[in-house]
Amino acid sequence: MTMKQDLTNLPAAPQTVPRTTPTVFLPPFRIGLGDDTHRIDHAADYITLGGLRIPCGFGLVGHSDADVLLHAITDALLGAAALGDGFRDIGEIFPDTDPANQDRDSAEMLRIVSEQVRRASWQIGNLDCIVHAQQPKLQPHRTQIQERVAAILNIQREQVSIKAKTGEHVGPVGRLEAITATAVVLLVRGIY
Ligand SMILES: [Zn+2]
Fold first, then answer.
1. More confident position, 91 or 6
2. Separation of 142 CA from ligand 1 center, angstroms?
3. Mean pLDDT of the 168-181 span
4. What is the mean pLDDT of the chain?
5. Fewer CB atoms inside 10 A, N or C side of the chain?
6. What is the mean pLDDT of residues 156-181?
7. How far is the CA of 68 from the centre of ligand 1 (A)?
8. Ligand 1 center to residue 102 CA distance, Å?
9. What is the pLDDT of residues 75-110, one digit of tens each?
């Protein structure tokens, strides 16, 4: 017959690291996540996506140009860099209460943010994005979007991945109520 081990009375594990001054290891890279949604406006006839104007019989509602992909990328960069108060997300830097941001070019906002991130000594390792849209079909535009995003960020095309998914005709995306985008970015301690 085996005795059940009393887990409440085990000897303390040996201390391999002194408790007094813990060493904080900060790796020379950071990951960031961005996500955005914009409602479809059936009164308009084109969307702005990845800095490209794509005619598709509807638009997106937004204070700026409603570029859902560039907004997700902007937030991913800000999340990874964690620059602090006033720079936590796109809404904090470019509030929709400021008339200056009305119909603002999201490519310009992303360029400003990427410059701030560079000044904080980070460079972009790579960027992976998903656009969820029932329509329009994004396959014909993917390479152009990839090149445009790379140009805005002043990085190589190979550092940018753009994937497209439909909403499978369910949920807000599938019912053509919204388009959403998700982006992850890897920042590497930069030497420029
Ligand atoms: Zn947005």
1. 91
2. 20
3. 97
4. 91
5. N
6. 97
7. 5
8. 12
9. 999 999 999 999 999 999 999 888 888 888 999 999
Give domain status of residue 113, yes or no: yes
CATH number (domain holding residue 65): 3.30.1330.50
pTM of the model: 0.87
In a domain, 16, yes or no: no
Dist. CA 181–CA 75, nearest whole Å: 11
The owner of tokens 């991945």 is 161
Number of domains in the chain: 1
pLDDT of residue 7: 67
Question: What is the distance in A from the centroid of ligand 1 to the CA of 130?
Answer: 14
Q: Residue 79: which residues within 8 A CB-CB, separation 6 or more? A: 32, 33, 34, 89
Q: Which residues contact 16 (CB under 8 A, 6 or more apart)?
A: none
Cα–ligand 1 centroid distance for 135 (angstroms): 18
Range(s) of the domain holding residue 112: 28-189
The residue length of the chain stands at: 192
Distance from the alpha carbon of residue 188 to the mean position of ligand 1, in angstroms: 26
CA–centroid distance, 131 to ligand 1, in Å, is 13
State phi, psi for 111 to the nearest 5 degrees.
-65, -40
